[in-house]
User: Fold this.
Amino acid sequence: MSSQGSVSRLTSVDIRSRKGGVPIVSLTAYSANIAAIADSHVDFLLVGDSVGMVVHGFENTLPVTLEMMIMHGAAVVRGTKRALVVVDLPFGTYEESPQVAFRNASRIMRETGCGAVKLEGGRHMAETIRYLVERGIPVMGHVGLTPQSINTLGGFRAQGRTEDQWDAIEADAKAVSDAGAFAIVLEAMAEPLAARLTQAVPIPTIGIGASSACDGQILVMDDMLGITPRVPKFVKQFGQIGHAIDRAIADYAASVRNRSFPAPEHTYGMKPKS
Assistant:
């Protein structure tokens, strides 16, 4: 049960059980206010290391620190009652060894109250995933385009663009599943490959730029809302909140400059003179 009320919070077991069922809905979130709005609409919220680019203005996710993920993860947990909250392990906090990964993952779960962590990588991360799961830490996997590996991938490039690459990516997905992950993100891959992987593994696949063939979908919240200046081609913008924010700030600025702000009746209980 949630510590914030009688609403039962979803768990990794609930998400795992959705394989082949009603599609799983997910978004990223980085703050309590936005997480609270999304909470009733999604099955899980991912506190992604994309926060480095979306909130902090970095060029990629590599500068994101463990402390940043804990800060944003704790905020999202505080803002939610129902959705499972999953927090990314940032670059450099889990690759060295399963023991280092456990130390940092357990700190994230302890200090944020989240229900799971996510890490990137396929076969080479299977041992680490198994080590974490065996010690009580639910893990979501991530294969295909793995943003933390952009320097070895050559940038943000779709993966599996030719069929000769598919077997390796399928082997990655199977290794992650066999190691005990409860779900796996498939990023930036063609629909036939995403469909093949979804059939190949017994855990839910969560697509981001991987077509509707997956068991669920995730988008970066700011991309979906039309706040991010540049978004990936696969993203459908379900809102234009960026334009609304721009208009509201422009109206506020104009009201200050023409001295029409604040209106007298809104100033600390003082009433305008009759």
The beta strands are 24-28, 44-47, 84-88, 116-118, 139-144, 183-187, 205-208, 216-219. The chain has a mean pLDDT of 89.
